[in-house]
Write a structure and sequence with these properties.
single chain, 252 residues, alpha+beta, Immunoglobulin-like, 5-stranded antiparallel sheet, elongated
Length: 252
C-alpha cells in the first residue's frame, strides 16, 4: 500500500493537482464592448455637467447676465466718480470755511484790540485835558511833572505798583535829557523801608529810565512790590545830572 500511495503522490505532483487554481468567469466579447461604451458615455456626461457648473458654455442667458454685470460695473464707477467729486467739493468748502473762520477770528481780535486802544486813548485824552489848564500857566523853560496816578495790581508773581504822570516843558526849543527816578516808601514789620528805582549799578534799568522830552511826554511803568511791604507813598522825580528838576508825590 505504501508503494502504491507513493506512486500516486508522484503522479499527482506531475499532473499539478496540488497547484493553486484561479477561476475566471467567461464573459462574452459583446458584453465587454457594451461595458466600455457605457463607461465612455458616463465620462462624457460627467464632463458636460462639470463644464456647465465650472465653465458654462456661452448662451443667450449668460450674455444677458454679462451685459447686466457690465452695466452695474459702469453705474458703480459712475457713482464712485460722483462721490469723489462731491468729496472734493466738500473738502474745498470745508477749507474755505476754515479760512473764513480764521479771518473772522482775526478781525474779532482786531476789533477787540481797537476797542481797548480807543478806551485807552479816551482815558488819556481826559487825563491830558485835566492837565492842560495847569500847563497853560506854566512858566516857559520850566519842567513840570503833573497828574501822578498810582495803583496796585495783583499778578501771578506778586503785587505790582503801576504809575503814570505827564512831563512837560514849554517855551523851549531844545530837548531835555534826564533820568526818571521812582521811590517807594513803605513799612515792613513796623519799620520804615525805602526802595529807589533804578537801582544803582543796574545798567538795563538806567537805560529804561532815561528821558528825552521837548514838549510833552507821558511817563508810565510798573514796579514789583517786595513781599510784606505796606506802601505809604510814592514819589516820582526827574533828574538832570543828579539834580532834581521836577517831582511829584502821592500817598497810598
Amino acid at each position: 500500500m505504501s508503494v502504491w500511495s507513493g506512486r500516486l503522490r508522484r503522479r499527482k505532483a506531475r499532473l499539478g493537482l496540488h497547484a493553486p487554481v484561479t477561476v475566471r468567469p467567461q464573459v462574452a466579447w459583446h458584453w465587454r464592448v457594451l461595458s466600455l461604451a457605457g463607461a465612455v458615455a458616463l465620462g462624457t456626461v460627467v464632463t458636460v455637467a462639470a463644464s456647465q457648473w465650472i465653465g458654462p458654455v456661452p448662451s443667450a442667458d449668460h450674455q444677458a447676465l454679462e451685459a447686466q454685470l457690465s452695466q452695474l460695473h459702469a453705474e458703480i464707477e459712475s457713482q464712485q466718480q460722483r462721490l469723489s467729486s462731491l468729496q472734493a467739493l466738500a473738502n474745498s468748502a470745508d477749507a474755505q470755511l476754515k479760512v473764513e473762520r480764521t479771518a473772522v477770528e482775526a478781525l474779532s481780535g482786531q476789533v477787540k484790540q481797537l476797542e481797548a486802544d480807543n478806551a485807552r486813548l479816551k482815558a488819556d485824552l481826559g487825563y491830558f485835558e485835566r492837565l492842560l489848564p495847569a500847563a497853560a500857566g506854566q512858566a516857559e523853560g520850566v519842567l513840570s511833572l503833573r497828574g501822578l496816578e498810582v495803583k496796585r495790581e495783583s499778578r501771578p508773581a506778586g503785587e505790582h505798583l503801576v504809575y503814570r504822570a505827564l512831563l512837560s516843558q514849554l517855551g523851549r526849543d531844545t530837548e531835555f535829557s534826564g533820568q526818571l527816578q521812582v521811590q517807594l516808601n513803605a513799612s515792613l514789620d513796623g519799620k520804615p523801608v525805602t526802595m529807589v528805582w533804578p537801582v544803582a549799578g543796574d545798567a538795563d534799568a538806567a537805560a529804561k529810565a532815561r528821558l528825552v522830552v521837548k514838549r510833552h511826554q507821558r511817563i508810565e511803568g510798573e514796579l514789583a512790590i517786595p513781599a510784606g511791604w505796606q506802601l505809604r507813598s510814592v514819589q516820582v522825580r526827574v533828574l538832570e545830572r543828579s539834580q532834581v528838576r521836577a517831582s511829584q508825590s502821592t500817598s497810598l
